[in-house]
Specification:
Layout: H1 2-32, H2 37-53, H3 55-67, E1 72-73, E2 76-77, H4 83-113, H5 119-126, H6 129-146, H7 150-173, H8 178-200, H9 210-285, H10 292-325, H11 327-340, H12 344-359, H13 363-384, H14 389-411, H15 419-449, H16 455-477, H17 479-489
Antiparallel strand pairs: 1-2
Helix pairs in contact: 1-7, 1-9, 2-5, 2-8, 2-9, 3-4, 3-6, 3-9, 4-5, 4-6, 4-9, 6-8, 7-8, 9-10, 9-11, 9-12, 9-13, 9-14, 10-11, 10-12, 10-15, 10-16, 10-17, 11-14, 12-13, 12-14, 13-14, 15-16, 16-17
Length: about 500
Amino acid sequence: MAEKTLKSHAIWSVVLQFSRFGGNALVFLAMARFLTIEQIGAFGMAYAPVRWAQVLHKSGILSSVVVVVRRKKDNAEVEQDDPAFTALFWLAMLASALVCGLIFLLALGLGRFSSIDASVDDMMLAMLIVPIAFGVSSVPEGLLQKNMQVKAIALRTLAVQLGSAAVALVLAMQGYGGWAMVWFAIMNAVLSSVASVFLAGWWPKGGPDLARMRAHLPQMSAISGRGLVAGGVHALLQFSVGLAFGLAGAGAFQIAQRIHQILDALCLAPVRFLVLPLFSKATEKGDGTLPGAMVLRALTIAGLISAPVYCGTILVAAPVLTLVIGAENASHAVPTLQILCCVGLSLSTGAILSQALTAVGRAGLAFWRVVGTLVITVLLAGPSMLVSVEAVTLGYVIAAYASMWIFLHRTTQIFDLAPRQAFTALARPYLAALIAFGPLFWLQHIVQTNLHWSDAMTLVVIMPLAVAAYVLTSRLVAPTAFSNVIGSLNR
């Protein structure tokens, strides 16, 4: 029964991960067909700081609630009136006030000193309700997660997203432009907050207790730090691209970033979720150490799963985006998306090694990898801002690989692995994908240019060929990864 419950939690957790990380992106793409690239860019700029700051609540406060050790009274757990939860609630509201103040100042500065469309700062002001809603719901949602009510969270997320998306899609079709997405963000946050409070049945039992709030602040800050730095890369690029290249450039980057979010939800978010408990169990058996063979096996599996997703997106980006968001918007976004997908190998490496480091109590190294990516990205962003959106995106990709190589040399020795050995484990599946998809890329160009095939017809022919070619090349070029995946599926 316990194993069945664990599997149920795992399945619903995967559903939840995709709903959170992929659902919003899918809704965005559905509405993008009815918006201009400038309207998409206006929303992307306005939402960037809001989305970045939500890490304080969705990671810092929520995770702090999960790890709180409940007080005991008369040999029974006191679940809902623990003063630690009330302290965390007021910390969440303090964070919301700070975020709202900073976004308000940013909106005022943007309206006064920037020549960008005035709708951007108006959108930012309208979305001040979002961090407040996140603050209200962070403790109740943390309690739901602490009590392993994963199914309830997943169903709530799906229901709220569907309802908000229906209203937003109607607004987009009625010509409300980027404001349709603003309303989606607001409705999604507010309805999720109300549902979380209702499902958890929790509300603070008292006012702010400064001593207790100070006691929980270091842990909350430490948890939030890595997420803020990691999310800061894309948020900074999104906002900077808008300032440097206008709303059209911001729109192209926003579309590419949202599709990239879907790709992560499809292949890396489930992997991150599944490998951590496996690594933790192996660490317990190994007295705090993790076998290098297990890490290497996870790297090969992650490579074989992620390589066709990222490389395949480069192959079919043009016809798929043309069908989904229209030719005009696709023409701006495709080059940026294709460059952004080149970061797949680096992200896959980080996904596995970060979880492995967490399992052995060395999560700080994973944090410094994120810091390194941010610093190098900022250094490269200056010159690339003088060139194009594609140059800025390429700078981020270069930064990701530079920090990855440093990360490999600093972490693989912990697991008794050579950096080249770890890199090769992931690189072989990506090499297989390049060999499989390279000729198909030129075939696609030929049939569309010379034979004038439609995008739909091209995809019907190209995608089955791509799947067959990747299966064949991966068995030849990455046999270890292929056998590891097959072995895992047969268990």
